[in-house]
Design goal:
The complex is a heterodimer. By secondary structure, chain A is α+β, with helices and mostly antiparallel strands. Helices cover 34% and strands 14% of the residues of chain A. In chain B, 23% of the residues lie in helices and 26% in strands. Classes of the chains: A alpha+beta, B alpha+beta. Chain A: Keywords: 2Fe-2S, Iron, Iron-sulfur, Metal-binding, Oxidoreductase.
């Protein structure tokens, strides 16, 4: 099938999509956007978090066809050219990035949190990021990064 | 030799002792860093692996006829398509690339499919007909050595005895225990992946997420029947490792498919396949007897421990040696009896995971120290300090600890930290969280301590070295440096450390880290907390050669100064096979934890309220990265304490998913206050001490000690499950 979807503000088209393909597969393998990650492909780890019409979703749980005529924003669409989004900048500065495989999903999820709650409390940050697994950091520096980004936005 | 901070001052910013940003950080937050699973090649096809559903079975036939007929399938391969040696392994070559006539664990690779789409490959795999004669699996590690032999030499992979001092001395106070450690998974987030690209001359390039390029290369070349120079590896982005990428997974498979089809082949495991596709932490059963005098001074420790290596040896021999040589913990004990056994079973293969044998022993000996404290009426910290090792102490192997061993100091540091406030009334800070299972009723608090010891770098006489090239030339009128190694960056931050070392040594701020590949000599494994030490040492040594040629010049015109060198840490020795005596290890690392927990005794739910750590790192070359390692290592220890286990039944894995294999989320992790000591090791570059593993050892027993303190339960097994707490 053919899927038409707006990704990071651009109208994109994917052809020969098998009906069983996820939005994640189409983004990664057909549209050249591998930033969203494939750590579990069952909605447990949050590494593939993208905005679908402004709501964060696990792209692995969205069938590609469900994205037809909708707007997707991925981690690749957060920076403004060379200028990183404050959340991205804070993740690098705070040491919240080790292997970085969880980072794209966490950055999108944290970006959404700060859009909704500009100055979140620690319990609020923890709730918001509870669906994003990280195996390297123990999360402390991710919390630091979100606090830092909140202070700058 | 004592290093002073002045010696670590860089002429330029971003040198050692500071925390510059990672060179790959911006790419990673932008989603533009190329992990192995992100790779793409024109005309590439997808590889998939058919695996055994049985833990132990004879293969009576394999029929690929129908699979080959599926449109879009390029190849279906079995063991007869392996042109070289169909056996590989880190220490023993005992594991088939593709099974021949027997499978020894559930998930063992039997056949490969190359196809135009992952779904095509899956459908074709379903058409491969494998006939199995199912056999009774060997699953009990304690009896495995006397059970049906799974390999020609029997099921005992290695027995490490240690005999030190009197073997029959008696003591005033004796405590005994039997402890179990469940099978933990590394659960790195980036699944096993790679892209193999065939060349027209019959050679192959593999872009791969691994921990050790050269040992992968050597094993792949042997399996492919190619000279080593015809197998070229380049490290792709690696999504974590923690030991789980030391063994081969899809490396040979992708190369076989690529050479067979003449097409680039990408293989990406999903999470379920990842659970079958790499080795895990050895589950263990450990029997301990500690004897002490009335003052709490240890008189003897005797232990017998079993580590389940599963179907293939992997690094079991070294894991067993670690468990044995570190088996009494960071304590002075004159009389030691250890018998550590690593065995084959039909359980999933086990090998390296952060802590590597020291974790299993650590849970048991620290549980014993708490039991001893209770028997003596002493505090857990006091009994540990009473026996704490110091510089100059003698290990059970007879090795003298010849650099800082601040065990008592680390314990005091965590003991003196402020305790968290009392049990919260905010449900988000109670066991069960927003599940709203308690408002504080049935919740009890406990505090626990633990300290651990880990060897750093490779041991037992292994020739452990790394190779580094540093090249300096003029770029835009300034000196610029490039550093090249084959040492794998898996997330830990070696790329940053190498830049920092070059900046400090050469006073050159602009340092490029070149891709890690096999065009340069061996970088050794990214394991045993060794890369900053060994590859860092190699980069430092290469810089010294460059510096001599620079001779103070800041303008070298068109000259290119290029130096490559190998660097080794001081040699170690094998241990005596009967007494376990010998200078087996290069360096020891120590960390201590204090855990505070709240336990809902009605539901058996645990919330770790705080998990504070003190660790000696010799020198913190990058303080931010050091703390990140300690926090991350502590988190993996928390996982083993209260949630993480690959559960098996009759050799079959019951929970190969992140739905059923739980790793800590941000809700499970408490705030962690970290104290970093910098007591330089005179034998190590800059005085550093490996950082990554020690915190994973003491975190688990500290948490379990806290749960015991809260509940009064004995808790001899990790992970602690709700039913262990409720008795239901």
């Amino acid at each position: 099938m053919r899927v038409n979807v707006t990704v990071n503000g651009e109208q994109r088209q994917a052809d020969d999509v098998w009906e069983g393909e996820s939005l994640l597969f189409v983004l990664r393998e057909r549209l050249g956007l591998p930033g969203s990650k494939n750590a579990c492909e069952q909605g447990e780890c949050g590494s593939c978090t993208v905005y679908l019409d402004d709501v964060p979703v696990c792209a692995c749980l969205v069938a590609a066809g469900q994205a037809q005529d909708r707007e997707v924003r991925t981690v690749e669409g957060l920076a403004d050219g060379d200028a990183l989004d404050p959340v991205q900048e804070a993740f690098v500065e705070a040491g919240a990035v080790q292997c970085g495989f969880c980072t794209p999903g966490l950055v999108v999820q944290a970006h959404d949190l700060l859009d909704r709650v500009p100055n979140p409390s620690d319990p609020e940050i923890r709730e918001a990021l509870a669906g994003n697994l990280c195996r390297c950091t123990g999360y402390e520096k991710i919390l630091d990064a979100v606090r830092l980004a909140a202070s700058r936005r | 030799m004592t290093l002073t901070p002045a010696e670590l001052t860089s002429a330029v910013s971003g040198g050692i002792g500071t925390s510059p940003q990672r060179p790959d950080g911006n790419l990673k937050v932008r989603g533009e860093f190329a992990y192995a699973s992100d790779l793409w090649h024109e005309d590439m096809i997808w590889g998939a692996t058919l695996r055994s559903p049985h833990p132990y079975a004879r293969i009576t036939s394999v029929d690929i006829t129908e699979a080959l007929k599926v449109p879009g399938v390029y190849a279906v391969l079995t063991h007869s398509d392996v042109p070289g040696r169909n056996l590989y392994g880190l220490e023993h070559k005992d594991q088939p690339v593709l099974a021949v006539d027997v499978v020894r664990y559930q998930g063992e690779p039997v056949a490969l499919v190359g196809a135009d789409h992952p779904e095509t490959a899956l459908r074709a795999m379903k058409k491969i007909v494998v006939s199995y004669d199912v056999l009774e699996p060997v699953v009990d590690m304690e009896t495995a050595a006397d059970d049906t032999p799974l390999h020609p030499g029997g099921n005992l992979v290695r027995h490490v005895p240690i005999r030190r001092g009197s073997q029959d001395v008696t003591a005033d106070v004796v405590v005994t225990g039997r402890y179990e450690v469940g099978m933990q998974d590394q659960a790195f987030l980036g699944p096993e992946s790679g892209l193999a690209v065939p060349a027209t001359d019959g050679s192959v390039d593999l872009y791969i997420a691994t921990q050790w390029l050269h040992v992968d290369r050597d094993q792949i070349a042997a399996a492919l029947g190619l000279p080593q120079e015809q197998v070229r590896l380049t490290l792709s982005g690696v999504g974590g490792a923690f030991g789980g990428r030391e063994d081969l997974s899809m490396q040979v498979h992708a190369c076989l498919l690529a050479l067979h089809t003449g097409k680039p082949v990408k293989m990406v495991y999903n999470r379920e396949e990842s659970f079958y596709g790499h080795v895990h932490r050895h589950p263990a059963v450990l029997y301990y007897e500690h004897g002490a005098d009335h003052t709490g001074k240890l008189v003897y420790v005797r232990t017998k421990m079993y580590l389940d290596g599963g179907a293939y040896a992997s690094s079991t021999p070294a894991v067993v040696a670690n468990a044995a040589t570190l088996g009494v913990g960071p304590y002075e004990v004159d009389n030691v009896t250890v018998d550590a056994y690593g065995v084959y079973t039909n359980n999933p293969p086990c090998g390296a995971m952060r802590g590597f044998g020291a974790v299993q022993a650590g849970f048991a000996y620290e549980s014993q120290m708490d039991k001893l404290a209770e028997a003596l009426g002493m505090s857990p910290v006091d009994v540990r300090i009473r026996n704490a090792m110091t510089e100059g102490s003698v290990m059970p192997t007879g090795q003298v600890v010849d650099s800082a061993a601040p065990v008592a100091q680390l314990l005091k540091l965590v003991q003196d930290k402020p305790l968290p406030a009392g049990t919260s009334t905010d449900i988000r800070e109670l066991p069960g969280g927003v599940s709203n299972t308690t408002h504080g009723e049935g919740v009890v608090r406990g505090v626990g301590y633990a300290v651990g010891i880990k060897n750093i770098c490779f041991s037992e006489g292994y020739d452990d070295y790394s190779t580094a090239r540093v090249r300096v030339s003029m770029v835009n009128g300034e000196l610029a440096a490039a550093v090249h190694t084959a040492a794998c960056e898996v997330g830990q931050g070696l790329v940053t450390i190498m830049q920092q070392i070059v900046r400090t040594e050469l006073g050159i701020e602009r340092v490029t880290v070149l891709p890690m590949d096999t065009t340069i000599g061996n970088g050794g494994s990214t394991s045993a907390s060794r890369q900053t030490y060994v590859t860092g040492g190699a980069v430092k040594a290469a810089c010294a050669l460059v510096k001599a040629r620079l001779d103070g010049r800041t303008d070298i015109g068109d000259e290119v100064i290029d130096e490559v060198t190998e660097w080794r840490h001081r040699a170690t020795e094998p241990i005596d096979p009967e007494t376990g005596q010998g200078n087996a290890h290069v360096q020891y690392g120590f960390a201590a934890h204090r855990a505070v927990v709240d336990v809902d005794v009605d539901l058996g739910l645990v919330r770790v309220v705080s998990l504070d750590c003190a660790q000696d790192v010799g020198r913190a070359l990058n303080p931010q990265a050091v703390v990140g390692q300690i926090q991350g290592g502590s988190a993996q220890g928390l996982g083993l304490a209260v949630m993480e286990e690959i559960q098996t039944s009759g050799g079959k894995v019951r929970n190969p998913s992140f739905t059923d294999y739980l790793i800590p989320t941000v809700l499970d992790m408490p705030p962690m206050s970290i104290d970093v000591l910098e007591l330089a090791d005179p034998h190590a570059p800059y005085g550093i001490r490996g950082v990554g593993e020690p915190p994973t050892i003491s975190s688990t027993p500290a948490i379990v000690a806290a749960i015991r303190a809260a509940t009064g339960l004995a808790l001899t097994r990790v992970p602690v499950r709700p039913e262990h707490l409720t008795g239901t």
